[in-house]
Hints:
By secondary structure, the chain is an alpha/beta fold. The protein is 38% helix and 19% strand. Strand 11, helix 3 and strand 12 (207-213) form a beta-alpha-beta unit.
Amino acid sequence: xxxxxxxxxxxxxxxxxxxxxxxxxxxxxxxxxxxxxxxxxxxxxxxxxxxxxxxxxxxxxxxxxxxxxxxxxxxxxxxxxxxxxxxxxxxxxxxxxxxxxxxxxxxxxxxxxxxxxxxxxxxxxxxxxxxxxxxxxxxxxxxxxxxxxxxxxxxxxxxxxxxxxxxxxxxxxxxxxxxxxxxxxxxxxxxxxxxxxxxxxxxxxxxxxxxxxxxxxxxxxxxxxxxxxxxxxxxxxxxxxxxxxxxxxxxxxxxxxxxxxxxxxxxxxxxxxxxxxxxxxxxxxxxxxxxxxxxxxxxxxxxxxxxxxxxxxxxxxxxxxxxxxxxxxxxxxxxxxxxxxxxxxxxxxxxxxxxxxxxxxxxxxxxxxxxxxxxxxxxxxxxxxxxxxxxxxxxxxxxxxxxxxxxx
Length: 408
């Protein structure tokens, strides 16, 4: 009976080849494991860095809010530390060193550069969040690189978070019509509270001015540096009155500006006289209420190249107590005044000028409310009250709401 074939025995060089493969597999596995560890930890490092960057942004934003609200870098620094510390970084409380990780200085918007040496009147803050051997957070543990001896790694934000407060150029557009005569004192207090709030923040290059209007408008205060001229602006605004101006020098017959029964030349007067005037085009002012005339004049002043900063946030604060109205009424005239306001507001928006609208609506007119709200533009907002005593608080709220910007 034939025997089945016997299996052949492996030759020696085949056994050696299998051994070589085992070595190659072992070496390859080690390399692949190392590459995988590097890839995983590189991804983890990116995650830690992204967390650090987000926390730096939070800190910079908090510091800017504090700087805007108080004008005090120490308070702003404490806010940055507090807001960052309220978050986790790689599972642990995040910590920044207020002395080494937070710098105040000035931001040059044209050059896009931060100068920490110029911190006498800072408008910006730079925040860095780190997990390094010398930082308060310490370095962080790697995920897999510890298998190859790299148990810890260091990471910092890709770049420090820089927040800057843009300078603000603000025109208050103040209604001084006769209907405001009983409340003008409180409107004046509101304007002064607004000025004082802006001045107290002591931010470089802020500027403020005022336009007054009835049926027409004129510049009451040119756009002026808050830092250098707030005292002079305040002195002038303390004299703000409704357009009949029942105070010196207009109630003194010996004054060249006296208007008690006589028409006089008003070109040098700091406010319009809306109830008397001349037929001469130079100083004729019609009465009535035309918010559009005030807005147009304010926009013109905010766009004058020689007087303004192209990087500033440009803002109009409109304060009025009525809907558009013409002397003696007249539907056509009032329609024109309404259109003037909308057109002026649209012109402001086209030039990145925001409008806050404040309506004093004592007896409540739905028409007035709707019209004043329709003039809001940009990041502006609408405020309304039947109580003139609320006006100072409203204008302070507007001052606090003018935004900030993270620039880097």
